[in-house]
Design goal:
The complex is a heterodimer of chains A (261) and B (130).
Chain A: E1 2-6, H1 16-28, E2 32-35, H2 57-65, E3 70-73, H3 76-91, H4 93-103, E4 114-117, H5 118-126, H6 128-134, E5 143-146, H7 156-159, H8 169-176, E6 180-182, H9 195-198, H10 200-217, E7 221-224, H11 227-235, E8 244-246, H12 247-255
Parallel strand pairs in A: 1-2, 1-3, 3-4, 5-6, 5-7, 7-8
Chain B: H1 3-16, H2 28-32, H3 43-51, H4 55-59, H5 72-76, H6 83-95, H7 105-111, H8 118-128
Classes of the chains: A alpha/beta (261), B mainly alpha (130).
């Protein structure tokens, strides 16, 4: 199967491992990610007021360019922005009209594209049972925690990714790879996000709280889908520290196709 | 309410889509806010201050730069008030004014270390300047 794919800026630079390992691992599972032509930055944060039109146009272009009604996303932020913009497209006529007037597309976007995160693709199109059968290097004995962060989960009504308060998708993913999934209370809380630039101590408080919770529960390593969560968890930890990787690195490792460090 | 206060309040309500009258003052938004300790005005206060027309006070408070847009208050509000949207609206009303950027591109580049992901730079550019 070939799916249209939106990688996003960070995956071309700081988070190359998130992107490269996704492509290789999915290829090993019979899925090809076809990068959209001429995609633009999603803007990294979703503009929450109804009069922010221009800052949502890049997401509309991506939605409109997706082939076969499906757009695969991988970065938590891109997923969040594009999925919420798609929701707005369906619910907010004012936004739809203004965006269409501005873009003047030959064929207006009809709102039918489904935005699918790679984790959802694995759960819903491949299935964790099938993933389990494809594993060649089971990660037996490793105690791994999921750091969900915010962007893939909330608002739950729009993202519809998993239960926003008690998510299990990444734990099921970890178990399918043969490792032990460790759940801990702060796995769906904020990493400190962009406030790390405004006030480093704010991000440190968030990260220390999350890592303390993870270590206490018995996590020996963490995985995430978000480059900003990874940055904060690694660089703004002042007490407990844990190795943090992208979930696609773990996937590629278990499938025996890991790209270089 | 004088005309300026009225206009600011109407703008905040219009662009955020929030109805502060739905708030039952349970404080769950502030209880779950990761930036609570850093804020002068906490999420539940935002809601009641907007209702009272105290927009300028909020616009001039550093609290608007501490909201993480983590959507915890939006998700967990039992009345669907979505306080985070009000914080975003007030912050935008501030930085949309002339010369009112909280940080500009150069400021952001100066603070960023070599490990900062593009996502963080872009987010800061969107949240702190126009």
């Amino acid at each position: 199967m070939i799916y249209s794919y939106y990688p996003g800026c960070t995956l071309k630079d700081r988070a190359k491992q998130l992107d490269l390992n996704a492509r290789t691992a999915l290829k090993a599972m019979g899925i090809e990610l076809k990068e959209l032509d001429a995609w633009q930055c999603c803007g990294a944060v979703y503009p929450q007021t109804s009069d922010e039109i221009a800052s949502r146009l890049s997401a509309v272009r991506a939605l409109s360019d997706a082939e076969n009604g499906k757009l695969i996303t991988l970065c938590s932020a891109c997923h969040h922005v594009i999925k919420r913009t798609n929701y707005d497209w369906l619910k907010d006529e004012n936004f739809r009209t203004k965006a269409t007037n501005y873009l003047k597309p030959e064929v207006p976007y009809d709102g039918s594209t489904q935005v699918i995160h790679v984790l959802e693709l694995i759960r819903d199109e491949i299935g964790f049972e099938n993933l389990k059968k494809m594993v060649v290097n089971p990660l037996t004995g490793r105690k791994i925690g999921a750091f969900y962060g915010c962007m893939v989960l909330r608002p739950g009504k729009t993202l519809a990714f998993d239960d926003p308060e008690n998510p299990t998708i990444i734990e099921q993913f970890i178990e399918a790879l043969g490792a032990t999934a460790v759940t801990y209370p702060y796995r769906n809380e904020c990493c400190g996000a962009y406030v790390a630039l405004e006030d480093k101590s704010a991000a440190e408080t968030q990260v220390d709280r999350a890592l303390n919770s993870a270590v206490k529960a018995g996590c020996e390593e963490l995985i995430t889908a978000c480059p900003l969560c990874l940055y904060n968890l690694v660089h703004n930890a002042t007490a407990n520290k844990l190795p943090v990787k992208y979930f696609t690195e773990l996937l590629a490792e278990a499938l025996g196709v890991k790209e270089g460090e | 309410m004088n005309n300026r206060v009225k206009t600011l309040t109407e703008t905040a309500l219009l662009i955020s889509g929030v109805n502060p009258k739905k708030c039952m003052k349970c404080g769950k938004c502030s209880g779950t806010c990761p930036s609570y300790d850093k804020m002068e005005y906490h999420p539940h206060q935002f809601v009641s201050m907007v209702e009272k027309g105290q927009i300028e006070k909020l616009m001039n408070s550093a609290s608007i730069y501490y909201c993480l847009s983590c959507m915890a208050c939006v998700e967990r509000c039992p009345r669907g008030v979505e306080p985070g949207k009000l914080v975003e609206a007030v912050r935008l009303m501030k930085i949309r004014q002339q010369d009112a950027n909280h940080k500009n591109g150069n400021d952001i580049a100066r603070i960023a270390d070599e490990n900062v992901p593009q996502q963080l730079l872009m987010a800061a550019m969107r949240k702190y300047r126009k």
